[in-house]
């Protein structure tokens, strides 16, 4: 794990461990302990958790979760990383495991100051007092000046108000929290314990009671110093387990956005799909998607022309590559920073983000020598490249009975049913890759088919998965459907485990009240 400076560590802790907001449910704490970073086949908990991460890459979903309501007010782009961290950081650790700062025994200090202050030279006592109040952040006792009578009236006058002038009073400060000043506080307290002991040893008392009090005070300083050493070690261990969360985007027409989450064992990289919502808001409907940036991104589903990448076998989808390539350098820098070659790297994406996740996975493997453990896609088209590219992916992710590239599809999702490989092979020489995973209904009783056979021309007409669903079910493509289907599957197969995020609020299936992403 990369080490940070004291100041950087304190700031990082402040950013990464927000106080639990209303949107954070304590039951969700450390829910990713159910995530298996080495899974190679069907894993229902992984499916649900990754779908939730993919869902929250959309600003209106994140905004609704933070408010715990159904209003679709998006989080501004400038605040997205902070808000995403606020919503999800506790999914990867349990705040109850935060190291608790040791408590200094105030009794020994009070006995010393009340009974033995006069037995210590004034200069030494002033130094000791300064060390104590600076370290503990406690307010100094208020020294009162002589009373001043209001309006110069006699003291015995009824309802006289006595004005008190505080002398040498420091402002009252709340003790700093562990999260904001962990190392700084430790350094201050260490200075107090070390120099306080020196002062006490220098001032040997001749009074029997003060000698005993002084020895008790020195013993407490030593005990506290040991406790601080243990606390420092606990802080380092706890900090190493915290997730590092980054949001990556550009202001280009290719509209790429992604969220990277790094933990000590694995990295999750989720690509956002086409996000027309920010362009449509506050309109009540984002359908049809005719905004300039959205229209450009959506037109990229037509893979003409496909391109050849110098380091990737076969031909790949030009539009999704153009989008992923815009943030390639930023993502690779972060992956190297977090030692991705020695962790399990998981990629995910919904809609356009699904295509980006697959292409970026190939780029990591062939161009940057970074292994990829698994790719989960939700509502993406089945094809992003030709047969050569598909064979490369299958050999890497699905050989020897493994299924590390899984494409999740919901019935009537018009994007997932857009099978380019069923069209004219001369124009669209594309082939599906990975394992197709299919939900035949979005209900608690809906069936799930793992590694279902790929579509053919006949199945498109008989399974009710035709592209005609674009007009009949315009909301079937939204990421919420995939979260709900994964939740129901988890509920049926093993019961919803404790400490799992609840099912997201439903946005409805009316084209006027749901987004198209």
Automatic annotation (TrEMBL):
Residues in Fungal lipase-type domain copies: 294-414
Pfam families cross-referenced by the UniProt entry: Lipase_3 (PF01764)
Keywords: Signal
Listed InterPro entries: AB_hydrolase_fold, Fungal_lipase-type, Sec_MonoDiacylglyc_Lipase
Top-rank lineage group of the source organism: Bacteria
Stretch forming the signal peptide: 1-23
Name of the protein this chain belongs to: Lipase family protein
Natural source organism: Flavihumibacter fluminis
């Amino acid at each position: 794990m990369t080490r940070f400076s004291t100041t950087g560590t304190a700031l990082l802790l402040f950013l990464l461990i927000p106080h639990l907001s209303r949107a954070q449910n304590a039951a969700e704490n450390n829910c990713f302990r159910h995530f298996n970073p080495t899974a190679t086949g069907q894993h229902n908990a992984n499916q649900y958790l990754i779908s939730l991460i993919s869902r929250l890459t959309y600003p209106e979903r994140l905004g609704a979760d933070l408010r715990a309501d159904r209003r679709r007010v998006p989080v501004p782009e400038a605040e997205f990383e902070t808000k995403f961290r606020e919503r999800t950081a506790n999914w990867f650790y349990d705040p109850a495991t935060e190291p608790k700062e040791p408590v200094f025994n105030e009794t020994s200090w009070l006995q010393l100051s009340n009974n033995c202050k006069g037995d210590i030279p004034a200069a030494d006592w002033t130094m000791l007092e300064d060390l104590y109040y600076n370290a503990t952040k406690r307010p100094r006792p208020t020294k009162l000046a002589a009373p001043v009578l209001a309006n110069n009236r006699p003291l015995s006058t009824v309802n006289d108000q006595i004005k008190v002038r505080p002398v040498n009073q420091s402002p009252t400060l709340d003790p700093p929290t562990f999260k904001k000043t962990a190392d700084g506080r430790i350094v201050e307290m260490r200075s107090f314990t070390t120099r306080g002991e020196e002062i006490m040893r220098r001032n040997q008392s001749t009074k029997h009671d003060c000698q005993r009090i002084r020895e008790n005070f020195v013993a407490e300083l030593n005990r506290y110093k040991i406790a601080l050493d243990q606390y420092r070690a606990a802080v380092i261990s706890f900090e190493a387990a915290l997730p590092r969360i980054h949001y990556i985007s550009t202001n280009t027409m290719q509209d790429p956005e992604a969220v990277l989450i790094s933990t000590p064992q694995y990295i999750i990289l989720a690509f956002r799909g086409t996000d027309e919502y920010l362009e449509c808001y506050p309109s009540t409907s984002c359908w049809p998607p005719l905004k300039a940036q959205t229209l450009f991104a959506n037109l990229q589903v037509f893979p003409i022309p496909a391109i050849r990448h110098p380091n990737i076998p076969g031909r790949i989808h030009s539009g999704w590559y153009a989008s992923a390539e815009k943030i390639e350098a930023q993502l690779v820098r972060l992956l190297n920073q977090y030692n991705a070659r020695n962790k399990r790297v998981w990629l995910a994406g919904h809609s356009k983000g699904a295509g980006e996740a697959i292409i970026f996975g190939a780029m990591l493997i062939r161009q940057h020598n970074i292994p990829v453990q698994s790719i989960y896609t939700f509502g993406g088209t089945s094809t992003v490249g030709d047969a050569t590219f598909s064979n490369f992916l299958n050999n890497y992710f699905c050989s020897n009975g493994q299924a590390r590239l899984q494409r999740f599809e919901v019935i009537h999702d018009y994007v997932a049913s857009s099978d380019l490989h069923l069209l004219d092979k001369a124009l669209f020489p594309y082939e599906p890759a990975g394992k197709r995973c299919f939900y035949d209904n979005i209900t608690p009783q809906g069936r799930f088919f793992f590694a279902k056979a790929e579509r053919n021309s006949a199945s498109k007409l008989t399974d009710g998965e035709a592209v005609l669903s674009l007009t009949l079910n315009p909301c079937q493509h939204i990421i919420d459907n995939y979260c709900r289907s994964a939740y129901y599957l988890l509920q049926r197969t093993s019961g919803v485990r404790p400490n799992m995020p609840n099912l997201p609020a439903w946005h409805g299936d009316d084209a006027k009240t749901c987004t198209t992403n």
